[in-house]
Fold this sequence. Notes:
By secondary structure, the protein is of the alpha/beta class. Among the domains are: 1-79 and 190-229, P-loop containing nucleotide triphosphate hydrolases (Rossmann fold), CATH 3.40.50; 237-267. Helix content is 40%, strand content 23%. The chain has helices at 40-48, 70-77, 95-99, 101-106, 111-124, 140-152, 170-187, 198-204, 224-227, 231-236, 238-253, and strands spanning 2-11, 14-24, 29-34, 55-60, 63-64, 80-83, 158-162, 190-194, 207-212, 215-220. The strands form 2 sheets. Strands 6-7-8-3-9-10 form a 6-stranded mixed β-sheet, with helices on both faces. The longest helix has 18 residues, at 170-187. The model has no long low-confidence stretch (mean pLDDT 90). Bound molecules: adenosine-5'-triphosphate and magnesium ion.
Amino acid sequence: MLQLEGIRAGYGDTEVLHGINLVAKERVTTAIIGASGSGKSTLLKVIMGFLHPTAGKLIIDGQDVAQVSEQEFAKHRQKMGLVFQESALFDSLTVAENVGFFPYYREKKPWGKVLPMVREMLEMLDLPGIENKYPSELSGGMRRRVALGRTLIYKPKILLYDEPTTGLDPTMIGHVDEIIREMNEKFQVTSVLVSHDLESVLDVAEHVFLVQDGIAQDVGEPWHLLTSKDAQVARFTKSWREHVEMYRKLMQSKGFDANGTPKGEAQ
Ligand SMILES: Nc1ncnc2c1ncn2[C@@H]1O[C@H](COP(=O)(O)OP(=O)(O)OP(=O)(O)O)[C@@H](O)[C@H]1O
Ligand SMILES: [Mg+2]
């Protein structure tokens, strides 16, 4: 379990997080939403130990690691994987070398040991047979999945995703959502997903927090985003609610129900 209690953090004299309380339960996907610049990525940096909080507790597996040494934190970081917004692959390395990058180049594991791990990963990510290709030969979505593979190869217990679907088309978003779900089911990870995509949040998250003014508000289950009467939640999700409403009206005007079934043919 991952728990933040009263976490304060920022850059220089500017405090961005003013006392974050947040719980990401084991084996559950917790989503963090919030306006651009509200501090979502900053929050992930704190969890990864890249940014030290000035106050509060960061509890990982029952231990408060907010103020431990870098050496001590490194042990906890091994349990975590961060999937970034932008996928940065090494253009001069093959797909296999990119996915196996950390075990091969950093840990110096023999390639004979790394390759089966890479193959399993590519298989899981629905990318078989592209081991020897170079990133320039792949589509943007495939590159994204290869980058995911590089993080997931360690099978981390806590997975942090920072807007993994930004800039992808709806099919690719679906694939990434599927991967997030699969990681939870197959490896029983605790996932924290920062996302701007309502559909993804509704699809994969089980619990949602809204970051606003440096504070995290516990929204609860994702559907509360569309129904909550809370003023802050309602304000933030206004455009999403309007989209859903627009869709509903459009379907109605075309004589379909919300599932796309013609009226009167509901099973
Ligand atoms: N390295 C940095 N140095 C100084 N200020 C920073 C740094 N990174 C972020 N900030 C500031 O901290 C605040 C929160 O930024 P952060 O990147 O955490 O927001 P975010 O919620 O992830 O936004 P987005 O949705 O656009 O990714 C912003 O005001 C930003 O300008
Ligand atoms: Mg961000």
